[in-house]
Amino acid sequence: MTNNTSTVPKFPYLRQDFLASIVVFLVAVPLCVGVAVASGVPAELGLITGIVGGLVTGLMPGSSLQVSGPAAGLTVLVFEAVSDFGVSTLGLIVLIAGLLQLAMGFFGIGRWFRAISVSVVEGMLCGIGLVIIAGQIYAAAGLKAPGTGIGKIAGLPVAVVDAMGSTKALTSLAIGAGTIAVIVLWKKMPKAVHSVPGALAAVVLATVATLAFSLPVGTVQVKGLLGVIQPPGAEAFGELATPAIWGTIIAFALIASAESLFSAAAVDRLHDGPRTEYNKEMIAQGAGNTVCGLLGALPMTAVIVRSSANVSAGAKTKASRVLHGVWLLLFAAAMPWALALIPIPALAGILVHAGWKLIPFRQIATLWRSHKGEALILVVTAVSIVAVNMFEGVLIGLALAVVKTAWEASHLKTQVIDEGVGPIQVHLSGNATFLRLPKILDSLEALPRDRPVELDLSGLHHLDHACRTALENWAERHSTDGTEPVKVTSAA
């Protein structure tokens, strides 16, 4: 008897995933290095986080095609943490943040992140983008940036004047500006060259130009992978007694989780494959950050730039992101000398471009036309992050979103019908909560005391205890001698 059953390949999409992994690797290298340098830590720590994102998070279930690694969106927060607590404590912060993510994933909290106001998230990205752009302009000019977001922006005019008087600073700025120009114009190049990511091409060209003309610009400092791995020590654990560090840990966990899960939702819209399982993705991110913390590396999130490149390159399974981690490991182990050739202003240019893309210009315009309240939340969140810091700025945005939602939820319509004779009819519809109580009482207490009143509450969707008590007290006061008692039609 002939067996007609065809043999199914064990890895049916190996070719597509292999090619996609190369593309993602080429996109990841300059971003990993750039984010690390901008965060104030050795360049290799960015590569380590990218490797863990591929080999640890990449192997786990959750979202099959999104790629994790160091993100520009956490640069500001990491820089603040390193400035406040030192590089030696960074690993501990990332470790505990990862454990918190694991706990949130195991307890099913991951899916609740989808309830966070999109305006707050967009405002967060906008604020981060502004701080990154301002900070990296200083880096592009070879100048020291002020420590605060508002200081970076306020100090730009003085920095420009200082740069104009220095040939070295102008040369460095030219490298940064040229890097941005290459990235922007790369998309207009013939399709044959599009297999090379624009950011990588820009870094290579900047490096070649720096070497060919012996330009006086700073380059990346290299220590080697083993030289930068720094597991948290006893001294770092002693920092846990400082209350301020816990705010940073919570900020790492919440912001990294929100960015990862919103990225997952965006990536799901790019392909027709399996949908993201949010709690499992939270666990995967937590596992990755736990390992990063143990190695003293940067925190990770899912990164939309790498993820979209993965999908666009034809990836079909998680094999592509795992392989990209393998290529990063081989590159960091075999070619660390290549990092030492990269000009710092070129990396600054990459991050200025990344920061610009974080600012949601179209969303702001759309929201302003249709939902001015949401646009206000976005702007206030962004300004708060620039003026104060990342964590408190996001909290201010969330608080404003909650207040707006509570105000809208208490929407109430009061209609008074007085035909001159007979009882005055008052109809309340919507949601009667304590937030609208002053308005309700103002309308009722303005009614004539010598006329009967019919109060119709049947149109209310919700009547809270404070409003019910206040209405009962008003009805009792209004029903004076000689006036018919207030007739109340109860809410459904």
UniProtKB/TrEMBL annotation:
Q: Name the keywords, alphabetized.
A: Membrane, Transmembrane, Transmembrane helix
- The principal location of this protein is membrane
Q: Where are the transmembrane segments?
A: 18-38, 45-65, 85-109, 116-139, 169-186, 198-217, 244-267, 287-305, 325-354, 375-403
Top-rank taxon: Bacteria
Identify the residues that the record assigns to the SLC26A/SulP transporter domain, covering every copy: 14-381
The way it spans or sits in the membrane comes to:
Multi-pass membrane protein
Question: Record's InterPro entries?
Answer: SLC26A/SulP_dom (IPR011547), SLC26A/SulP_fam (IPR001902)
Name recorded for this polypeptide = SulP family inorganic anion transporter
Origin species: Streptomyces lavendulocolor
